[in-house]
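Reagents: none. Just compute today. TIGR02453 family protein.
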Amino acid sequence: MTTQLFEGFSQEALDFLVQVRLNNSREWYEKNKPLYKQYLIKPFQGLVSDLSHIVLEIDPLFEIAPSVNKTLSRLNRDTRFSKDKSLYRSAMWLTFKRPKSEWTGAPAFFFEISPESFRYGMGYYSATRESMDTFRKMMNEDLARFDRAFDFLNRQEIFAVEGEMYKRTLAPSLPDTLRQWYDRKNIYLVHNSSQVERLFSPAIADDLAEGFRMLEPIYQYLLKVEVRKESDAASAKY
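Predicted 3D structure written out:
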């Protein structure tokens, strides 16, 4: 892809996130808000804009507006139901997802930076139990279709599967390669890296574009899971 707006992040962006961690107060944030916009908001907006045509090829219904609460995360935290009462996060991320009030239970693409690392990938932020039950049902019904969507992961070393698993397997007869999917409460594919110098290059946008394309078959499979889940729920009402 040809980068148009995104020129890479800067050391100042990572330094700002460190300072957020050290000076987690409303007074400090308001004083340094111009730096937040310069070092984080602006490059993230450029990155979203440059990736928008790629992700729309994957899903034309994706939200691509380069703004906070659309594709960009907020820096301030909702502390009402959290033991951690820190007002601000020392990380920032973008998310490509379909506009939906309860988007955390639907598959999405993401990219996140922190002072020490970055990560990107695709999957559920917090899959519902109904989604995972449907996921397992579809595996049982058509294992060949599942293999077509997921088999490429065995031929690459970029992404790893993560997400909480049940302590006791749900399907003892399945091989380990399938149980790593079947036994999960949540699923996402992620590339984790501590090589933050990569963030300083516009080439990180190419990494994301290539990685998102690689994950498209799994995203499309998870979309079918969501469609099937809604269909089954509608049928159960009658």
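The longest helix spans residues 26-58.
Action item: order primers for follow-up constructs.
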